[in-house]
Amino acid sequence: MGAPLVQHTGRGLPLGRDDVDTDQIVPARFCRRITRTGYDDALFADWRGLSGFPLSDQAYAGATVLLAGRNFGTGSSREHAVWALRDWGFRVVLASSFGDIFLRNALNNGLLAVTLPPDGLNLLLGRTAADPAAPISVDLAAGQVEAAGHTWEFEIDGRARELLLTGADEIDSTLERGDLITRYEAGREPWTAKVG
Amino acid sequence: MTLSTTFSTTGPTTGSTTLFEHLWNRHLVVPQESDPALLYVDLHLVHEASSPQAFEGLRLAGRRVRRPDLTLAVEDHNVPTDSTVIRNELSRKQVEALRANCAEQGVTLLRLGNSRQGIVHVVAPELGLVQPGMTVVCGDSHTSTLGAFGALAFGIGTSDVEHVLATQSISLAKPLSMAVDFTGTLPRGATAKDLMLALMARIGANGARGCVVEYRGEAVERLSMEGRMTVCNLTVEAGARAGLIAPDETTFRYLEGRPHSPAGAHWEQALDQWRGLRSGPDAPFDRRLEFDASTVVPYVTWGTNPGQAVPIDAAVPDPGELADPAARAAAEKALRYMDLRPGTPMREVRIDTVFLGSCTNGRIEDLREAAEVLRGRTVAAHTTMLVVPGSMAVRRQAEREGLHEVFQQAGAEWRLPGCSMCVAINGDQASPGERVASTSNRNYEGRQGAKARTHLVSPATAAATAVSGRIAAPDEI
């Protein structure tokens, strides 16, 4: 499902806010569409008009690495939040923590969500504000973020890493275990609820 | 661990296993060889807002829904509550997409106007579809509600909805386990909603991030299933993946005789197994917290996340008194958005609209609590009140009890079921600057309409607030 992502270098966008829930990333009214793409107009729609909001600042045009704060992507499970970030052009989000469902959604759409320590994030935020063109490099294969003369190691679980590196379809790989699912089903209690 | 033992761990939990661990192990399709694990899904709930892209993906890949008999679809997010005609074109197209997808794939759908339609997390338990020991997923974060039955229930994104449709299983990194032990019992006048707002005021809107939280203690045992669902519903607002309450006689009484509950000999077999579903006395949790329920009073939020809450007698807090710079900055930003000054008593905050409903507080007991306060009283002249039952069944029950007359005589609007102002994409929403007292679960910026301001409260507090036109507790009117 996701496009492969092995190594990425791009400019940063210094969002730098804590507790950005998915209602802010994409307001609910944009969740009435039936497509998986075309959400670039929805991204941070209610914050775009605010003065100084970096997404509306031409200095950061072309940024592909979102620099968030603490608890990014909490709240609603809406995958539209990840679709909108991808549609805008982001390939990487760096934050000091993430909402659980957002992390899964990011993985499922080839958006690399990486946890960095707060001081590292602050350094990158300051650096990007001072020099919007400064490159940030993320190497998934090596598990490293490199920018401003610093290197940070990050961890990502093995399966997620493999899916991101190859862009493999997780449904395909699960369907290959179809016999195990069938076997599990044979052991379910006969009284477990059924809809039909 | 061999495959055969994975499939046969249906016995009771042991002294050193948590209920969560037991549910997890019981649903591993393959022994846990890696993280994330592959879990079997017993019940998949679907709604119109998070599913169209999943069905489309299925179609493009030429796949079918593996288990339509374990899948239930409901129309709730986009449906209007003042008529059965969907006027908004985007909403209507999304609902029509769900209808076409369900017809094509053989999935049972509770359509707008159906006698069982309503909010997915209200409807599924009413039908007896959510049972102890199950795994339940839905493309909605408030699926955590259903953990009230001793089921592992959690929200997923649309790509994972597609994965479940195709495989009836879900890939999931194992969450941490957390126990919240309530000491004491809830005082009279304090509700499940207040208990959770008080808990979040202490641990913060991300105090349980990454965890499956099991609630224990007399305060929880004494709650009805409706109250327990409110507790588990709000667990996700503390950043948790799921909430969990061990099943007991209250659970079994609720389930007995429901349309999809086991019957006859199966009921006895089910009970035998369900009675064993509890954490062992020595079970280790990754995190543990004690919270004194006897100190809980009616709570109200002042900020823009559910953890920014205070007792209703308190004043708007002063961000300057917060030691943590991040919390201080968040409080300053929240107060700017909410247009509140530090030191203002919460009871002096004037309210334009009161919303009673949602998967947090749209069940029959919530309506009864609010009606009790409203009986013989009138909604303040400058305030409007919307009463939105969580389901058609709740609406019918309320009408049997005459609650709708209490609401209507007080001047409140009696509506049809749906997510209504909680998600605010169905025509029910607040205007910019409008201030809402809401029984829902999220007071985020713009949640109930762009630039609208939300204060989360319990149903009884919502009713008292409607009467006084300012934030008010039931004991003062």
Written description of the protein model:
The complex is a heterodimer of chains A (196) and B (477). Chain A has a single domain, classed as Alpha-Beta Barrel (Aconitase, domain 4), CATH 3.20.19.10. Chain A contains seven helices and seven strands. Chain A is an alpha/beta fold and 196 residues long. Chain A is 30% helix and 16% strand. The model of chain A has no long low-confidence stretch (mean pLDDT 93). A seven-stranded mixed sheet of chain A has the order 4-3-2-1-5-6-7. Chain B is an alpha/beta fold and 477 residues long. Chain B folds into two domains: 19-289, Aconitase, domain 3 (2-Layer Sandwich), CATH 3.30.499.10; 312-468, 2-Layer Sandwich (Aconitase, domain 3), CATH 3.30.499.10. Helices cover 33% and strands 16% of the residues of chain B. Chain B has 17 helices and 18 strands. In chain B, the strands form five sheets. A five-stranded parallel sheet of chain B has the order 4-3-2-5-6, with helices on both faces. Chain B has a five-stranded parallel sheet with strand order 16-15-14-17-18, with helices on one face. Chain B has a four-stranded parallel sheet with strand order 10-9-8-11. Mean pLDDT of chain B is 95; it is low at 1-11. The interface between A and B is large, with 59 and 88 residues.
